[in-house]
User: Fold these one by one.
Assistant:
Number 1:
Amino acid sequence: MRALDWLPTALRERSTCRALKAGETLFRQGDKTFAIFEVEQGRVRLIRHAVDQHPVVLHSARPGELFAEAALFAERYQCDAVAATAARVRAYPKGPLLAAFRADPALAERFMAVLAHQIHALRARLEERNIRSARRRLLHHLALAAAPGSRTMKLDGTLIDLAAELGLTHEALYRTLAALEKDGAIRRSRAGITLRRHPAL
Amino acid sequence: MRALDWLPTALRERSTCRALKAGETLFRQGDKTFAIFEVEQGRVRLIRHAVDQHPVVLHSARPGELFAEAALFAERYQCDAVAATAARVRAYPKGPLLAAFRADPALAERFMAVLAHQIHALRARLEERNIRSARRRLLHHLALAAAPGSRTMKLDGTLIDLAAELGLTHEALYRTLAALEKDGAIRRSRAGITLRRHPAL
DNA sequence: CGAGTGATTGACTTAGATCAATGACCGTGG
DNA sequence: CCACGGTCATTGATCTAAGTCAATCACTCG
C-alpha cells in the first residue's frame, strides 16, 4: 500500500487484492476499464499487440509500482496485463476513485502530484540511459540517488536489480563498481555506496 | 500551443511567451514556483545540483513538451531550467491553473489524463531502451510508432532526431535501416518507414 | 545437505561508438 | 545568380567497452 497510501481510508478499503499465477492475464486490450492497479509482489507486463498480433512489451511493472493509471480516463484498456511471474496486485476500482477526485479537489491535486513526480522520475531515468559509458552512467545515478545532502546511496534491492534499473548487465555493473572502488571514486559497504569527493571526473 | 490546447481560452490567454538565449536561465533550484512551461522552440535542460555543486542533467525538453509540471504542487523549483539552445517557452502561471482545476473537476481530469499518457509514453520509451540490439530496438519502435492499424511510421523530424529518441548514434541508425531494408524487413520512402510482413524475426 | 540466488571474476567476441570523408540539398547574402 | 556555409544522409575503417558464456564462492532456506 505504498503508492496510494495518502488515500482516505474509506477509499483504500475499497481496494481488493488479487493473486496471479505466472502467465495469467489480469486484463486484455479492449476490455472495459474497471480499476487501476498496484503491484505488491512479482512483475506484471503490459503488452500491446501491434499489427499482425506481434506482441510488444510496453512496460514491466515491479513491486510498489502503480500501473494502468490511464484506465481512469479511458473506456477500454489499451494493452494486455499479464503476470510475468507469480504476482499479487491490488486493484483500486475506477468509479470510487474518480468520484472522490471530483468531490475533493485536494485529493485530485494529490494524485496529480503523484503523477507529476512519476513523470520526473521517468524522465531522469531516460536521460540517464543517454549516457553511454557504464562508469559515467553509474556515477550519474549515484549522484541522483544519494540521500539529499549526502553522498551515500543506500541500496535496498540487490545489485542485480540496480543493474537492471541502470540498463546494464549485472556483470558490467560489478566490474564498474570494482573499478570505481579501485580508483577511490566510491566506497562500498553492506548498506550502500558512497561517492568520495573527487575534483577530477 | 500543442500540449495544453484543451485549456479554456480564458486560461490559455493568461499564458505568456518568453524568449531565451542559449545558456540563459529560466528558473533556479529553490526559486518560488510561479508557472509550468511548454517548449515552443529550442531545447531546455533541467539540471539538478547534487552535493558539491556537481550538475546533473535530469531532462532535456524539446519542442511541444511540457516541463516543470511538478511545480504546480511544490513551493520551490527542484532544479534549474537552462536554455540549451536559443529557445522560446510558453509559461502557464500556476495560480490560475490550480484555481481552474479546483473549480472544474472535468478540467482537472483532463490534466490527469495528459499526465497519465505522458507516463505511459515514457515507460514505453524506457522499456525500449532495455532492448540492446539496435535492430530489434528499431523494429520495436516501428511496431509501436506505426499509425494504429497500419505498418507505416511517418517520420516528421530528421533521422538524427529519431536516432536520439532511440538512444542510438545516427550512424548506427543509418546502418541498421540499410540492413533492414536489404533484408526486406522494411521499406523506406520520403514520408516514412514501412514494416513488411515477415513471418520470421 | 543440496538447491537456488546473489556476488564476483575471467576469457572472448562483437555490436555499436567514434572518427572521418563524401555528396545532396538548402537558404542566403553579396 | 552563384558561391558558401550549414545540416542531413550515408558509408567506410577502426577500436573498445560492454555483452555473453562460464566458473567459483558465499549464503540462506527448507
Number 2:
Amino acid sequence: MRELPEVEVVRRGLEAHVVGRRIDRVDVLHPRPVRRHLAGALDFAALTTGRTVLGARRRGKYLWLPLDSGDAVLGHLGMSGQMLVQPAGAPDERHLRVRFTLHGAGELRFVDQRMFGGLSVSPGGAELPAEIAHIARDPVDPLFDDDAFVAAVRRRASGVKRILLDQTVVSGVGNIYADEALWRARLHGERPGTRLRRTDVQRLLADVRGVMAAALDQGGTSFDALYVNVNGESGYFDRSLHAYGQEGRPCERCGTPIVRVAFMNRSSYFCPVCQPQPRVRRAS
DNA sequence: ACTACGTCCTGCTTGC
DNA sequence: TGCAAGCAGGACGTAG
C-alpha cells in the first residue's frame, strides 16, 4: 500500500540521500512507468541527465524532485512503487523500471511491480507541477483550508467515502485511510455529504489526520532510508487497522463483526452498529 | 458542473 | 495437480 505517510517517509529519504546530487546517467528499462511523459523515454532521460536535484517535495501521494533546469521529476508510487537508493553495481531488482546513476552517490532506482505508478518530467514544475495543480492540498499541509473542506463535503450529494477519495476535494486519502477514518468518526461511507452536520465533517477531518499521524509515527521510525519492505507494507498496517481488511473480526468498540461490501471495484469495511447505514430517503 | 464507472497492471490467493 | 477466476487499488478518461 502506498499511503500518504509512506510517501512522506520516501520523500524524507530522498531529501537525505538524493537532494544535492547530480544525475550522471538515466536508464529507462520499461516504457510503462514513463507513459505520462508523452515525449517518450529518450526525452525523459535527456531532460534529467546532467541535472542536479534541488529538493524533494510532496502533495498527497505525488512526489517531485525540482531540478536545476527549473523542471521537476514528478512521480507517483501507485500500488507497488518504491524508490530505492542502492550502491552502484548492486544486483537489479526484479521489477527495476528506471535507474538514475548519481554522481558519486550510488543509484536512485524506481522499482514497481504492478506499474500503476510512474515518472515524468514536468516542464517548469519545480514549484508545483502543472500536472497536479488541480489536486487539492492534503490534510497535513499547513495551508490546508479546513473550512473550505467542510463546505465542499457538505455541498456534495455523493457518499462521504467517495468524497474523501476525490482528489479535488482532499488529496492523499486512499481506500485504507478512508475506511479507518470513517470508523473512527463512526460514519457510514454512504452517508451523503449534503446530510452531514458541520461537526460531523470536522470530526471526520480530525480522524483522517489522526490515522495519518499514527501511521507516520510508525512508518517514520521503521524506515530511515528509502527502503520499504518487499511487500510494501509498514508495520502500521499489520497492527493498527480497526476496519480495513478486518471482515468478520469484532469491532474494537462494540464487538460486532466488521462487514465488507463491494465498492467501486474494491471493498469497504465498516462496523454495522457503530457506523449505521443511512436511512434511504423516499423519492418525492 | 457534478457524478459514476471502466480501465490499466501483475502476482498472489482461492476455488473447482 | 492444474488452471482460471478473483482480488488488490490510484487516477484518469469518458459518458451520462
